Amino acid sequence: MQRVADYMPQSMQPIISISNLSKTYASGFRALKGINLDIRRGEIFALLGPNGAGKTTLIGIVCGILKASQGSVTVDGHEIVKDYRAARSLIGLVPQELTTDAFETVWATVTFSRGLFGKPRNPAHIEKVLKELSLWDKKDNRLMTLSGGMKRRVLIAKALSHEPQILFLDEPTAGVDVELRKDMWQVVRDLRSSGVTIILTTHYIEEAEDMADRVGVISKGEIILVENKAELMRKLGKKQLILHLQKKLDALPASLAAHNLSLAAGGSELVFTYDTKAERTGVTAMLSALSSADIGFRDLATTQSSLEDIFVGLVSERS
Amino acid sequence: MNLRAAGAIYTFEMARTGRTIWQSIVSPALSTSLYFVVFGAAIGSRITEIEGVAYGAFIVPGLIMLTLLTQSTMNASFGIYFPRFTGTIYEILSAPVSAFEIALGYVGAAATKSIVLGLIILATSFLFVPLQIAHPFWMLVFLVLTSVTFSLLGFIIGIWADGFEKLQIIPLLIITPLTFLGGTFYSINVLPPVWQTITLFNPVVYLVSGFRWSFFEISDVSPAISIGMTLLFLSLCLAAVWWIFKTGYKLKN
In this predicted model, what pLDDT tens digit does every residue of B214-237 receive, in sequence order? Predict the structure, then answer.
Protein backbone atom coordinates (compact mmCIF):
# COMPACT_ATOMS: atom_id res chain seq x y z
CA MET A 1 0.00 0.00 0.00
CA GLN A 2 1.31 3.41 -0.94
CA ARG A 3 1.17 5.99 1.74
CA VAL A 4 0.69 9.68 1.28
CA ALA A 5 4.18 10.12 2.69
CA ASP A 6 5.64 8.28 -0.30
CA TYR A 7 4.74 11.16 -2.56
CA MET A 8 6.24 13.82 -0.35
CA PRO A 9 9.76 15.13 -0.82
CA GLN A 10 12.08 13.66 1.79
CA SER A 11 12.40 16.93 3.67
CA MET A 12 8.65 17.01 4.22
CA GLN A 13 8.40 13.48 5.55
CA PRO A 14 8.41 13.11 9.29
CA ILE A 15 11.78 12.05 10.64
CA ILE A 16 10.09 9.91 13.27
CA SER A 17 6.79 8.25 12.66
CA ILE A 18 5.08 6.48 15.53
CA SER A 19 1.95 4.55 14.79
CA ASN A 20 -0.44 2.79 17.10
CA LEU A 21 2.25 2.26 19.69
CA SER A 22 1.27 0.50 22.89
CA LYS A 23 3.23 -0.71 25.84
CA THR A 24 2.01 -2.92 28.63
CA TYR A 25 4.55 -3.78 31.32
CA ALA A 26 4.79 -7.25 32.84
CA SER A 27 3.00 -5.87 35.89
CA GLY A 28 -0.01 -5.24 33.67
CA PHE A 29 0.44 -1.48 33.73
CA ARG A 30 -0.50 0.08 30.38
CA ALA A 31 2.08 2.81 29.96
CA LEU A 32 1.19 3.68 26.36
CA LYS A 33 -2.16 3.28 24.67
CA GLY A 34 -2.05 3.47 20.89
CA ILE A 35 0.22 6.45 20.39
CA ASN A 36 0.29 8.09 16.95
CA LEU A 37 2.82 10.84 16.53
CA ASP A 38 4.97 12.30 13.78
CA ILE A 39 8.06 14.34 14.51
CA ARG A 40 9.02 16.75 11.76
CA ARG A 41 12.52 17.02 10.42
CA GLY A 42 14.51 19.78 12.09
CA GLU A 43 11.97 20.82 14.68
CA ILE A 44 12.17 21.12 18.43
CA PHE A 45 9.31 19.09 19.80
CA ALA A 46 8.42 19.39 23.45
CA LEU A 47 6.64 16.47 25.04
CA LEU A 48 4.84 17.54 28.17
CA GLY A 49 3.03 15.39 30.64
CA PRO A 50 2.71 14.71 34.34
CA ASN A 51 4.87 12.11 36.07
CA GLY A 52 4.02 8.61 34.93
CA ALA A 53 2.29 9.81 31.75
CA GLY A 54 4.51 7.64 29.55
CA LYS A 55 7.09 10.13 28.31
CA THR A 56 10.13 8.07 29.24
CA THR A 57 8.52 4.84 28.07
CA LEU A 58 7.84 6.41 24.68
CA ILE A 59 11.42 7.60 24.36
CA GLY A 60 12.70 4.24 25.59
CA ILE A 61 10.89 2.39 22.83
CA VAL A 62 12.01 4.73 20.05
CA CYS A 63 15.61 4.45 21.25
CA GLY A 64 15.59 0.65 21.59
CA ILE A 65 15.78 0.35 25.37
CA LEU A 66 12.27 -1.04 25.74
CA LYS A 67 10.24 -3.35 23.57
CA ALA A 68 6.90 -2.18 22.27
CA SER A 69 3.90 -4.41 22.95
CA GLN A 70 2.21 -3.26 19.76
CA GLY A 71 2.59 -0.78 16.94
CA SER A 72 5.58 0.42 14.99
CA VAL A 73 8.09 3.23 14.83
CA THR A 74 10.19 4.34 11.89
CA VAL A 75 13.17 6.66 12.16
CA ASP A 76 14.01 8.36 8.88
CA GLY A 77 12.24 5.50 7.14
CA HIS A 78 14.03 2.76 9.07
CA GLU A 79 11.86 0.45 11.13
CA ILE A 80 13.36 0.46 14.65
CA VAL A 81 13.33 -3.31 15.21
CA LYS A 82 14.06 -4.74 11.78
CA ASP A 83 16.47 -2.02 10.76
CA TYR A 84 17.76 -1.12 14.20
CA ARG A 85 21.29 -0.28 13.16
CA ALA A 86 20.29 2.41 10.69
CA ALA A 87 17.60 3.78 13.00
CA ARG A 88 19.67 3.90 16.18
CA SER A 89 22.79 5.35 14.59
CA LEU A 90 20.76 8.51 13.85
CA ILE A 91 19.69 8.98 17.46
CA GLY A 92 21.42 10.48 20.46
CA LEU A 93 19.76 9.93 23.82
CA VAL A 94 20.22 11.91 27.01
CA PRO A 95 18.46 9.90 29.72
CA GLN A 96 16.64 11.34 32.66
CA GLU A 97 18.67 9.55 35.30
CA LEU A 98 22.25 10.65 35.87
CA THR A 99 23.81 7.30 35.07
CA THR A 100 27.55 7.47 34.59
CA ASP A 101 30.53 5.23 35.21
CA ALA A 102 32.06 6.62 38.38
CA PHE A 103 35.66 5.76 37.61
CA GLU A 104 35.88 6.78 33.97
CA THR A 105 37.22 10.14 32.86
CA VAL A 106 35.05 12.55 30.89
CA TRP A 107 37.22 12.11 27.82
CA ALA A 108 37.16 8.29 28.00
CA THR A 109 33.42 8.01 28.44
CA VAL A 110 32.62 10.38 25.58
CA THR A 111 35.11 8.62 23.30
CA PHE A 112 33.54 5.30 24.29
CA SER A 113 30.11 6.50 23.19
CA ARG A 114 31.38 7.49 19.78
CA GLY A 115 32.97 4.06 19.30
CA LEU A 116 29.84 2.31 20.50
CA PHE A 117 27.87 4.03 17.75
CA GLY A 118 30.36 2.79 15.19
CA LYS A 119 31.91 6.11 14.29
CA PRO A 120 35.65 6.35 13.60
CA ARG A 121 37.74 8.14 16.20
CA ASN A 122 37.59 11.91 15.90
CA PRO A 123 39.26 13.70 18.80
CA ALA A 124 38.60 17.07 17.16
CA HIS A 125 34.84 16.50 17.27
CA ILE A 126 34.95 15.34 20.89
CA GLU A 127 36.99 18.41 21.76
CA LYS A 128 34.44 20.65 20.07
CA VAL A 129 31.53 19.04 21.92
CA LEU A 130 33.29 19.26 25.28
CA LYS A 131 34.16 22.90 24.70
CA GLU A 132 30.61 23.81 23.72
CA LEU A 133 29.34 22.24 26.91
CA SER A 134 32.05 23.94 29.01
CA LEU A 135 33.51 20.57 29.95
CA TRP A 136 36.88 20.92 28.30
CA ASP A 137 38.80 21.75 31.47
CA LYS A 138 37.19 18.73 33.15
CA LYS A 139 38.10 16.26 30.43
CA ASP A 140 40.59 14.33 32.59
CA ASN A 141 38.39 14.34 35.69
CA ARG A 142 36.75 11.17 36.85
CA LEU A 143 32.99 11.31 36.56
CA MET A 144 32.41 10.74 40.26
CA THR A 145 34.20 14.01 41.03
CA LEU A 146 31.73 16.02 38.94
CA SER A 147 28.66 17.87 40.16
CA GLY A 148 25.17 16.83 39.06
CA GLY A 149 24.95 19.60 36.49
CA MET A 150 28.26 18.59 34.98
CA LYS A 151 27.26 14.94 34.84
CA ARG A 152 24.17 16.04 32.97
CA ARG A 153 26.36 17.83 30.45
CA VAL A 154 28.58 14.75 30.15
CA LEU A 155 25.49 12.76 29.21
CA ILE A 156 24.68 15.36 26.56
CA ALA A 157 28.28 15.20 25.31
CA LYS A 158 28.01 11.41 25.07
CA ALA A 159 24.83 11.71 23.04
CA LEU A 160 26.43 14.28 20.72
CA SER A 161 29.70 12.38 20.38
CA HIS A 162 28.43 10.42 17.40
CA GLU A 163 26.88 13.36 15.55
CA PRO A 164 23.23 12.27 15.74
CA GLN A 165 20.50 13.64 13.48
CA ILE A 166 17.93 13.31 16.23
CA LEU A 167 18.49 14.18 19.86
CA PHE A 168 16.25 13.01 22.68
CA LEU A 169 16.53 15.05 25.85
CA ASP A 170 14.61 13.47 28.69
CA GLU A 171 14.26 16.14 31.39
CA PRO A 172 17.61 17.66 30.46
CA THR A 173 17.54 20.55 32.89
CA ALA A 174 16.42 18.76 36.03
CA GLY A 175 18.83 19.75 38.76
CA VAL A 176 20.81 22.16 36.59
CA ASP A 177 21.27 25.72 37.77
CA VAL A 178 19.95 28.68 35.83
CA GLU A 179 23.25 29.76 34.33
CA LEU A 180 24.05 26.28 33.03
CA ARG A 181 20.54 25.87 31.75
CA LYS A 182 21.00 28.91 29.54
CA ASP A 183 24.24 27.47 28.14
CA MET A 184 22.53 24.19 27.51
CA TRP A 185 19.68 25.77 25.61
CA GLN A 186 22.18 27.68 23.53
CA VAL A 187 23.71 24.34 22.56
CA VAL A 188 20.25 23.03 21.69
CA ARG A 189 19.49 26.08 19.55
CA ASP A 190 22.80 25.71 17.74
CA LEU A 191 22.04 22.05 17.10
CA ARG A 192 18.67 22.91 15.72
CA SER A 193 20.12 25.48 13.36
CA SER A 194 22.54 22.83 12.13
CA GLY A 195 19.51 20.71 11.22
CA VAL A 196 19.27 18.34 14.19
CA THR A 197 15.75 17.35 15.24
CA ILE A 198 15.24 17.66 18.98
CA ILE A 199 12.64 15.97 21.13
CA LEU A 200 12.62 17.06 24.73
CA THR A 201 10.59 16.37 27.78
CA THR A 202 10.64 18.89 30.53
CA HIS A 203 8.60 19.93 33.47
CA TYR A 204 9.88 23.50 33.25
CA ILE A 205 7.04 24.57 31.05
CA GLU A 206 8.55 27.99 30.43
CA GLU A 207 11.37 26.16 28.68
CA ALA A 208 9.01 24.41 26.32
CA GLU A 209 7.31 27.74 25.78
CA ASP A 210 10.63 29.32 25.06
CA MET A 211 12.25 26.63 22.93
CA ALA A 212 9.74 24.41 21.20
CA ASP A 213 8.28 24.66 17.70
CA ARG A 214 5.56 22.21 18.55
CA VAL A 215 4.18 20.89 21.76
CA GLY A 216 2.68 17.50 22.47
CA VAL A 217 0.84 16.69 25.65
CA ILE A 218 0.75 13.13 26.90
CA SER A 219 -1.41 11.97 29.74
CA LYS A 220 -2.05 8.44 31.00
CA GLY A 221 -0.36 6.92 27.98
CA GLU A 222 -2.29 8.91 25.40
CA ILE A 223 -1.31 11.87 23.29
CA ILE A 224 -4.08 14.35 24.01
CA LEU A 225 -2.79 17.25 21.97
CA VAL A 226 -0.19 18.11 19.36
CA GLU A 227 -0.05 21.68 18.19
CA ASN A 228 2.27 24.37 16.93
CA LYS A 229 3.31 26.21 20.01
CA ALA A 230 2.47 29.63 18.56
CA GLU A 231 -0.93 28.39 17.45
CA LEU A 232 -1.58 26.85 20.81
CA MET A 233 -0.59 29.99 22.64
CA ARG A 234 -2.74 32.09 20.34
CA LYS A 235 -5.72 29.81 20.53
CA LEU A 236 -5.61 29.44 24.24
CA GLY A 237 -3.60 32.54 25.05
CA LYS A 238 -6.36 34.60 26.58
CA LYS A 239 -5.65 37.63 28.62
CA GLN A 240 -7.77 38.59 31.58
CA LEU A 241 -8.19 41.91 33.27
CA ILE A 242 -9.29 41.55 36.87
CA LEU A 243 -10.94 44.51 38.56
CA HIS A 244 -11.16 44.52 42.33
CA LEU A 245 -14.42 46.34 43.02
CA GLN A 246 -15.05 48.89 45.70
CA LYS A 247 -18.50 47.50 46.34
CA LYS A 248 -19.70 43.95 45.87
CA LEU A 249 -22.11 43.31 43.03
CA ASP A 250 -24.90 40.79 43.32
CA ALA A 251 -25.35 40.54 39.58
CA LEU A 252 -23.90 41.99 36.43
CA PRO A 253 -25.83 45.14 35.42
CA ALA A 254 -27.64 44.71 32.11
CA SER A 255 -25.77 47.67 30.62
CA LEU A 256 -22.56 45.62 30.83
CA ALA A 257 -23.92 42.46 29.24
CA ALA A 258 -22.43 43.31 25.84
CA HIS A 259 -18.93 43.20 27.28
CA ASN A 260 -17.19 39.96 27.95
CA LEU A 261 -17.39 40.29 31.69
CA SER A 262 -18.02 37.91 34.52
CA LEU A 263 -18.26 38.20 38.26
CA ALA A 264 -15.79 36.42 40.46
CA ALA A 265 -14.77 36.11 44.12
CA GLY A 266 -18.33 36.32 45.32
CA GLY A 267 -19.06 39.53 43.47
CA SER A 268 -16.05 41.50 44.62
CA GLU A 269 -14.16 41.04 41.33
CA LEU A 270 -15.04 41.62 37.73
CA VAL A 271 -13.11 39.57 35.15
CA PHE A 272 -12.78 40.89 31.62
CA THR A 273 -11.50 38.35 29.09
CA TYR A 274 -10.05 39.55 25.81
CA ASP A 275 -7.70 38.64 23.02
CA THR A 276 -4.52 40.71 22.95
CA LYS A 277 -4.01 39.97 19.26
CA ALA A 278 -7.40 41.34 18.21
CA GLU A 279 -7.59 44.68 16.45
CA ARG A 280 -9.71 46.17 19.19
CA THR A 281 -9.40 44.65 22.62
CA GLY A 282 -12.47 46.48 23.91
CA VAL A 283 -10.74 47.56 27.11
CA THR A 284 -11.57 51.25 26.69
CA ALA A 285 -15.22 50.64 25.83
CA MET A 286 -15.60 48.31 28.80
CA LEU A 287 -14.00 50.83 31.18
CA SER A 288 -16.25 53.68 30.02
CA ALA A 289 -19.28 51.39 30.34
CA LEU A 290 -18.20 50.69 33.90
CA SER A 291 -17.91 54.36 34.73
CA SER A 292 -21.35 55.12 33.23
CA ALA A 293 -22.75 52.30 35.36
CA ASP A 294 -20.99 53.97 38.28
CA ILE A 295 -18.96 50.95 39.22
CA GLY A 296 -15.70 51.91 40.83
CA PHE A 297 -12.65 49.71 41.42
CA ARG A 298 -9.79 49.80 43.90
CA ASP A 299 -7.20 47.91 41.95
CA LEU A 300 -6.68 45.98 38.77
CA ALA A 301 -4.45 43.18 37.54
CA THR A 302 -3.95 41.33 34.28
CA THR A 303 -3.05 37.70 33.75
CA GLN A 304 -2.09 35.89 30.60
CA SER A 305 -2.46 32.13 30.38
CA SER A 306 0.87 30.38 30.01
CA LEU A 307 1.55 27.02 28.50
CA GLU A 308 1.47 25.74 32.04
CA ASP A 309 -2.14 26.86 32.56
CA ILE A 310 -3.09 25.33 29.24
CA PHE A 311 -1.31 22.15 30.14
CA VAL A 312 -2.77 21.87 33.62
CA GLY A 313 -6.19 22.63 32.17
CA LEU A 314 -5.88 19.90 29.57
CA VAL A 315 -4.62 17.26 31.93
CA SER A 316 -7.18 17.95 34.64
CA GLU A 317 -9.97 17.97 32.07
CA ARG A 318 -9.04 14.39 31.30
CA SER A 319 -8.78 13.09 34.81
CA MET B 1 29.16 -5.32 11.42
CA ASN B 2 29.87 -2.67 14.03
CA LEU B 3 33.31 -3.86 15.08
CA ARG B 4 34.10 -0.40 16.43
CA ALA B 5 31.44 -0.93 19.08
CA ALA B 6 32.87 -4.29 20.10
CA GLY B 7 36.27 -2.59 20.19
CA ALA B 8 34.93 0.24 22.35
CA ILE B 9 33.45 -2.19 24.87
CA TYR B 10 36.64 -4.25 24.84
CA THR B 11 38.82 -1.19 25.43
CA PHE B 12 36.50 0.02 28.18
CA GLU B 13 36.67 -3.34 29.94
CA MET B 14 40.43 -3.64 29.58
CA ALA B 15 40.78 -0.15 31.05
CA ARG B 16 38.71 -1.34 33.98
CA THR B 17 41.20 -4.21 34.47
CA GLY B 18 44.00 -1.68 34.38
CA ARG B 19 42.35 0.27 37.18
CA THR B 20 41.79 -2.84 39.28
CA ILE B 21 45.07 -4.58 38.52
CA TRP B 22 45.64 -5.59 42.16
CA GLN B 23 42.28 -7.22 42.41
CA SER B 24 42.07 -8.78 38.98
CA ILE B 25 45.66 -9.85 38.25
CA VAL B 26 47.97 -9.56 41.25
CA SER B 27 45.69 -11.08 43.86
CA PRO B 28 44.81 -14.29 41.98
CA ALA B 29 48.45 -14.73 40.93
CA LEU B 30 49.55 -14.38 44.55
CA SER B 31 46.99 -16.81 45.94
CA THR B 32 47.96 -19.41 43.35
CA SER B 33 51.61 -18.97 44.30
CA LEU B 34 50.63 -19.74 47.88
CA TYR B 35 49.18 -23.07 46.72
CA PHE B 36 52.54 -23.85 45.09
CA VAL B 37 54.41 -23.04 48.28
CA VAL B 38 52.10 -25.15 50.43
CA PHE B 39 51.22 -28.09 48.18
CA GLY B 40 54.17 -28.01 45.85
CA ALA B 41 57.16 -27.34 48.09
CA ALA B 42 56.02 -28.03 51.65
CA ILE B 43 53.54 -30.93 51.51
CA GLY B 44 54.17 -32.00 47.92
CA SER B 45 57.69 -33.18 48.68
CA ARG B 46 56.17 -35.85 50.95
CA ILE B 47 53.61 -37.05 48.43
CA THR B 48 54.70 -39.72 45.99
CA GLU B 49 54.78 -39.03 42.27
CA ILE B 50 51.55 -39.46 40.34
CA GLU B 51 52.04 -41.44 37.14
CA GLY B 52 55.65 -40.33 37.03
CA VAL B 53 54.95 -36.65 37.66
CA ALA B 54 56.07 -34.86 40.82
CA TYR B 55 53.05 -33.76 42.86
CA GLY B 56 54.09 -30.10 42.75
CA ALA B 57 54.08 -30.19 38.96
CA PHE B 58 50.99 -32.39 38.78
CA ILE B 59 48.78 -29.73 40.37
CA VAL B 60 49.94 -26.89 38.08
CA PRO B 61 47.34 -27.44 35.31
CA GLY B 62 44.62 -27.89 37.92
CA LEU B 63 45.57 -24.71 39.72
CA ILE B 64 45.62 -22.73 36.49
CA MET B 65 42.18 -24.13 35.67
CA LEU B 66 40.90 -23.24 39.14
CA THR B 67 41.92 -19.62 38.64
CA LEU B 68 40.77 -19.51 35.03
CA LEU B 69 37.32 -20.81 35.85
CA THR B 70 36.62 -18.58 38.82
CA GLN B 71 38.23 -15.44 37.40
CA SER B 72 36.59 -15.75 33.97
CA THR B 73 33.16 -16.10 35.53
CA MET B 74 33.71 -13.34 38.07
CA ASN B 75 35.19 -10.87 35.60
CA ALA B 76 32.65 -11.38 32.86
CA SER B 77 29.70 -11.35 35.25
CA PHE B 78 30.83 -8.09 36.88
CA GLY B 79 31.51 -6.58 33.49
CA ILE B 80 27.91 -6.85 32.34
CA TYR B 81 26.21 -6.69 35.74
CA PHE B 82 27.73 -3.35 36.65
CA PRO B 83 26.21 -1.32 33.78
CA ARG B 84 22.88 -2.96 34.62
CA PHE B 85 23.30 -2.03 38.26
CA THR B 86 24.33 1.59 37.61
CA GLY B 87 21.97 2.06 34.65
CA THR B 88 24.66 2.85 32.08
CA ILE B 89 23.42 -0.17 30.12
CA TYR B 90 20.94 2.25 28.51
CA GLU B 91 23.66 3.41 26.18
CA ILE B 92 24.55 -0.08 25.01
CA LEU B 93 20.91 -0.97 24.46
CA SER B 94 20.32 2.20 22.45
CA ALA B 95 23.45 1.81 20.33
CA PRO B 96 23.46 0.29 16.84
CA VAL B 97 25.12 -2.90 18.07
CA SER B 98 24.11 -6.50 17.71
CA ALA B 99 24.04 -9.03 20.51
CA PHE B 100 27.06 -10.68 19.00
CA GLU B 101 29.10 -7.48 19.12
CA ILE B 102 28.14 -6.77 22.72
CA ALA B 103 29.08 -10.30 23.76
CA LEU B 104 32.29 -10.09 21.73
CA GLY B 105 33.36 -6.96 23.60
CA TYR B 106 32.55 -8.15 27.11
CA VAL B 107 33.45 -11.82 26.73
CA GLY B 108 36.54 -11.00 24.67
CA ALA B 109 37.86 -8.71 27.39
CA ALA B 110 37.10 -11.14 30.21
CA ALA B 111 38.70 -14.00 28.29
CA THR B 112 41.79 -11.91 27.49
CA LYS B 113 42.16 -11.13 31.16
CA SER B 114 41.91 -14.81 32.08
CA ILE B 115 44.40 -15.88 29.43
CA VAL B 116 46.91 -13.29 30.64
CA LEU B 117 46.30 -14.41 34.20
CA GLY B 118 46.74 -18.10 33.24
CA LEU B 119 50.03 -17.34 31.53
CA ILE B 120 51.25 -15.34 34.54
CA ILE B 121 50.47 -18.26 36.85
CA LEU B 122 52.15 -20.64 34.45
CA ALA B 123 55.27 -18.46 34.40
CA THR B 124 55.18 -18.23 38.20
CA SER B 125 54.93 -22.00 38.56
CA PHE B 126 58.22 -22.44 36.72
CA LEU B 127 59.81 -20.69 39.71
CA PHE B 128 58.49 -23.28 42.17
CA VAL B 129 58.36 -26.64 40.41
CA PRO B 130 60.15 -28.43 37.55
CA LEU B 131 57.69 -28.25 34.67
CA GLN B 132 57.43 -29.45 31.07
CA ILE B 133 54.78 -28.75 28.47
CA ALA B 134 54.44 -31.68 26.07
CA HIS B 135 51.92 -30.04 23.72
CA PRO B 136 52.17 -26.22 23.91
CA PHE B 137 49.67 -25.78 21.10
CA TRP B 138 46.98 -27.89 22.78
CA MET B 139 47.83 -26.25 26.08
CA LEU B 140 46.97 -22.89 24.52
CA VAL B 141 43.84 -24.32 22.87
CA PHE B 142 42.53 -25.51 26.25
CA LEU B 143 43.54 -22.25 27.88
CA VAL B 144 41.73 -20.13 25.31
CA LEU B 145 38.63 -22.33 24.97
CA THR B 146 38.19 -22.57 28.74
CA SER B 147 38.63 -18.82 29.21
CA VAL B 148 36.11 -18.05 26.49
CA THR B 149 33.59 -20.64 27.69
CA PHE B 150 33.64 -19.52 31.30
CA SER B 151 33.62 -15.86 30.34
CA LEU B 152 30.45 -16.61 28.40
CA LEU B 153 29.07 -18.37 31.46
CA GLY B 154 29.98 -15.32 33.54
CA PHE B 155 28.27 -13.06 31.02
CA ILE B 156 25.11 -15.15 31.37
CA ILE B 157 25.30 -15.00 35.16
CA GLY B 158 25.81 -11.23 35.00
CA ILE B 159 22.59 -10.91 33.02
CA TRP B 160 20.65 -13.37 35.15
CA ALA B 161 21.71 -11.91 38.51
CA ASP B 162 19.59 -9.20 40.05
CA GLY B 163 21.74 -8.60 43.09
CA PHE B 164 25.33 -8.92 44.21
CA GLU B 165 24.58 -12.12 46.08
CA LYS B 166 23.31 -13.93 43.01
CA LEU B 167 26.36 -12.68 41.19
CA GLN B 168 28.68 -14.44 43.64
CA ILE B 169 26.62 -17.51 44.30
CA ILE B 170 27.48 -19.52 41.19
CA PRO B 171 31.23 -18.94 41.24
CA LEU B 172 31.45 -19.60 44.98
CA LEU B 173 28.90 -22.35 45.51
CA ILE B 174 29.10 -24.23 42.22
CA ILE B 175 32.25 -23.54 40.28
CA THR B 176 34.73 -23.62 43.16
CA PRO B 177 33.45 -26.95 44.59
CA LEU B 178 33.26 -28.51 41.13
CA THR B 179 36.84 -27.46 40.48
CA PHE B 180 38.13 -28.82 43.76
CA LEU B 181 36.27 -32.08 43.18
CA GLY B 182 37.19 -32.19 39.50
CA GLY B 183 40.70 -33.49 39.91
CA THR B 184 42.59 -30.28 40.49
CA PHE B 185 44.66 -31.76 43.29
CA TYR B 186 44.37 -35.46 42.48
CA SER B 187 43.84 -37.94 39.70
CA ILE B 188 40.29 -39.21 39.77
CA ASN B 189 41.74 -42.72 39.45
CA VAL B 190 42.50 -42.60 43.16
CA LEU B 191 38.78 -42.40 43.94
CA PRO B 192 36.58 -45.43 44.67
CA PRO B 193 34.84 -46.66 41.45
CA VAL B 194 31.42 -45.24 42.41
CA TRP B 195 32.85 -41.79 42.93
CA GLN B 196 34.80 -42.05 39.70
CA THR B 197 31.53 -42.51 37.85
CA ILE B 198 29.84 -39.69 39.72
CA THR B 199 32.80 -37.44 39.04
CA LEU B 200 32.38 -37.95 35.30
CA PHE B 201 29.24 -35.79 35.52
CA ASN B 202 31.43 -32.93 36.65
CA PRO B 203 32.32 -30.92 33.51
CA VAL B 204 35.44 -29.55 35.16
CA VAL B 205 37.00 -33.04 35.10
CA TYR B 206 37.23 -32.85 31.32
CA LEU B 207 38.81 -29.41 31.35
CA VAL B 208 41.42 -30.28 33.97
CA SER B 209 42.15 -33.65 32.43
CA GLY B 210 42.63 -32.27 28.92
CA PHE B 211 44.74 -29.41 30.17
CA ARG B 212 46.91 -31.75 32.24
CA TRP B 213 47.35 -34.02 29.24
CA SER B 214 48.78 -31.10 27.25
CA PHE B 215 51.47 -30.78 29.93
CA PHE B 216 52.33 -34.35 30.91
CA GLU B 217 50.49 -36.60 28.46
CA ILE B 218 48.63 -38.19 31.37
CA SER B 219 44.88 -37.85 31.65
CA ASP B 220 41.79 -39.19 33.40
CA VAL B 221 39.71 -39.14 30.21
CA SER B 222 40.91 -39.10 26.63
CA PRO B 223 42.01 -35.66 25.36
CA ALA B 224 39.62 -35.97 22.40
CA ILE B 225 36.68 -36.33 24.81
CA SER B 226 38.04 -33.39 26.78
CA ILE B 227 38.08 -31.18 23.70
CA GLY B 228 34.63 -32.44 22.70
CA MET B 229 33.15 -31.66 26.11
CA THR B 230 34.77 -28.23 26.16
CA LEU B 231 33.30 -27.42 22.76
CA LEU B 232 29.91 -28.75 23.84
CA PHE B 233 29.93 -26.52 26.90
CA LEU B 234 31.03 -23.58 24.76
CA SER B 235 28.13 -24.20 22.37
CA LEU B 236 25.64 -24.38 25.25
CA CYS B 237 26.85 -21.03 26.56
CA LEU B 238 26.70 -19.50 23.08
CA ALA B 239 23.15 -20.78 22.65
CA ALA B 240 22.13 -19.29 26.00
CA VAL B 241 23.62 -15.90 25.09
CA TRP B 242 21.88 -15.99 21.72
CA TRP B 243 18.58 -16.75 23.46
CA ILE B 244 19.09 -13.91 25.97
CA PHE B 245 19.47 -11.32 23.26
CA LYS B 246 16.78 -12.84 21.11
CA THR B 247 14.21 -12.55 23.89
CA GLY B 248 15.69 -9.51 25.62
CA TYR B 249 15.67 -11.56 28.84
CA LYS B 250 16.36 -9.25 31.81
CA LEU B 251 17.79 -6.65 29.45
CA LYS B 252 14.71 -5.21 27.83
CA ASN B 253 11.28 -4.96 29.37
Answer: 999 988 889 999 999 999 999 999
Residue of A nearest to B20 (CA): A103
Where are the domains positioned within chain A? 4-234, 237-306
Enter the CATH code of domain A4-234.
3.40.50.300
Residue A318: predicted pLDDT: 65
What residues of A are in contact with residue B95 (Cβ under 8 Å)? Answer: 88, 116-118
Tell me the chain A residues in contact with residue B11 when contact means C-beta distances shorter than 8 Å.
112, 115
* pLDDT reported for residue A206: 74
| Number of inter-chain CB pairs under 8 A, A vs B | 79
Q: How many domains does chain B have?
A: 1
DSSP letter (8 states) at residue B171: I
Q: Write the single-letter amino acid at B236.
A: L
CATH class of this structure's domain A237-306: alpha beta
In this model, does residue B63 exceed pLDDT 70? yes
Q: Do residues B179 and B73 make contact, with C-beta atoms less than 8 angstroms apart?
A: no
Is the CB of A300 inside 8 Å of chain B's CB atoms?
no
Q: Is B208 part of a structural domain of the chain?
A: yes
Q: Would you list the DSSP string of A138-200?
A: GTTSBGGGS-HHHHHHHHHHHHHTT--SEEEEESTTTT--HHHHHHHHHHHHHHHHTT-EEEE
pLDDT at A157 over 50: yes
Q: Do B91 and A108 touch (CB under 8 A)?
A: no
From the list A67, A93, A112, which residue is nearest B252 (CB)? A67
**Among A171, A209, A219, residue whose Cα is nearest residue A308:** A209
**Domain ranges, residue B225:** 3-247
Q: Which pLDDT does position B129 carry in this prediction?
A: 82
pLDDT in tens, A128-147: 999 988 899 999 999 999 98
Provide the pLDDT for residue A1.
45
Residues of A in contact with B92 (CB under 8 A): 116
